[in-house]
Each structure stands twice: as C-alpha cells, then as structure tokens.
Amino acid sequence: MSLNSMQSIKGKHFQPYEAEFPSFVAERPISSDPIRLHGNAFSTLLTPLEPIKDGSTVIGIDVSSIRVGETETGSICAIRGAIVWNEKQHYQYVRLGPFPFHVTEMNRPEAPGGPRLDASSGHNVGLLTPVETQNHLCSLVERWIRAGVSFASSRSIILWDGSLTAGMPGNPVSAISHILRVARRNSNSVLAFSKATTIRFLGWRITDLAPNQKPPCLLEVENLPLSISRTASLLGRIFAAKLAEGGYSFRLDIDRALSREDCITAVERLLGNELMFQGYPETLRLAHIYSTFTANDVLGIQSFLAAEYGLKVVPRCNIRKTLFGPFGTGYED
Fold first, then answer.
1. Residues 226, 265, 217, 274: is their CA dihedral positive or negative?
2. Predicted TM-score (pTM) of this structure
3. Are strands 35-37 and 209-211 parallel, antiparallel or unpaired?
4. Is the pLDDT of residue 174 over 90?
5. The pLDDT of residue 114
C-alpha cells in the first residue's frame, strides 16, 4: 500500500513540514487527591498480586505516525512500528518502517456513512480528512503487526498500547476479535495498557480509585456502574492496575475470553518476568521509544523521498505566520 500510494508522487513539488517537537518536561501532572474506597463491597473487587517468575517471554507492540510534507495533490505521512521482546531479561527489538504514504483525494477512504457530494463544488465530502486517514493507516499497520506477533509467538504475554475496546472507526470488532483468537490459540495472553482513560465511576476516573492496598494490585471495575459508550464493544475485562510502589495507575484490559483466574495469573507472570518503570512495563515503554519519530528521522525521510522520487523541494508558505506573525501557531489542514 505504501509503495502503491507513492507512485503518484514522482516529479511533484514537495513542501516539507518543519520538524517541530514539544520540549520534554519530566514532572508529574497535578491531580486532585484520589478517592479512597472502603467497605466489604469494594474489598471483593481488589486482588493483591504475587509475581510469578516462570521465564515467560513478554512482547510489547507500539506504532506511531507523523506528517512529513505535502504536494500539489495531497499530503505525505510516515508510519513506523516497533516490537520489543524480553526473554529471560534480555531485551531485543525490531522496527518496521517507516512506511511513507501519499494521501490524496483519490486514495483516501470513505468516512463512516458513505460518500456525500457537495452540491456547490461537486467534491466528495464523505472522505476522511488527511489527519483521519493518517490515523486510519496507523491503525491498519498496528493491526498487521499485532496479528503477526499473535501468530508467531506462543505461551507469551503480549502487551498492546491502548485498550481492547472495538467498534470505532479504525478498530473493527471482527479484526480485533480475530487477532485475540489467534493469540489464545497459541496460548498467548493479551494485555492492553492505557495511559489515559475517559471511563469514570461516580465522576472519578477509574485510575484515580486508590484502594488502601499496597501495590501490586488490581481493582476489577467492570461490574461497577461506569460511564462507557454504548456503541463500543468491550473485548477485554477492565481493571485499574497499580503495579509498582510509587508508580502510576493504568487502565488495564485483558482478553475477555480468558477466565478471571487466568487474567490474574497473566498479570502475575508479567510482574515476575518484566521490569516495571513507574508501574509501566519496560517492553511497552521501549516499543513506544523505538516507534516514535525524532526530528532527525523526519529530516532523513524528507531527504530520502526527495532523492528517490525526484521531488522538487519548495519552501512551504506558512499563511498563519504571514498573517499573524508570532501569533500564527498551529498547522494548516
């Protein structure tokens, strides 16, 4: 798909985007005091964990994308994935990509609901926007990598970045369910970590529920009256997980087809065979780092594309800065 999309770019004018990235500030976010849960009703939802060190392989998967530039007929984005595995405390990784995509009106997928024509211009307004298309392609590459890992590995703990919620654009229920079935068939356990969540209980985010229990522990929250979209399909059991002393709490989804006991055992195997940084698995942290694009990566991709496809590099006119000077912030879509 990447190579096919790039065939339409040869000899065009190319306006590279500036490789601007936010500065890094290592500090904890300010948050309100977490709610404290008391009583026997909540104690039944709490599960203290004991690490199981059995030599299980832990595999982390992450994918990222970035906009590279634009041509007369569309925009160019790049997508890269990373797989990191920890086998007996030896970490290895492989990176897939970057895959460049030339997104034009001719190859952009349709938005949910089908195509619609603008009567005034005659253009198809039922297409995904370039940013939505970039996210769609990123999800497609991520599903491809997840499926390959689930097929190729056995008796491993596979970590996904995000949740096991399906049914939204880019996350079809059938595709995610198939990947989970393949993983189970090979005796793998799929765990998905979310760094942020909109699911709430009594107005509190589930990650703010701080039980009077020493970590590592899990709080099973799916039986509580939660604020969850009714259009979403939950393919995993939902937990609030605090896995390290002084670390963060995360939303943790575990394949719903596994029994509750198998879910607990999978997390205990993770704790016994993986390093935890601030309560987050090291393989998943490294997968994010190896998939994320740096400023040098973007410059290298732009130079390669210009040489490979004979692009005529022209300065990008920033209308915002021309009109508004130092107040002209943000991208023009």
1. negative
2. 0.85
3. parallel
4. yes
5. 45
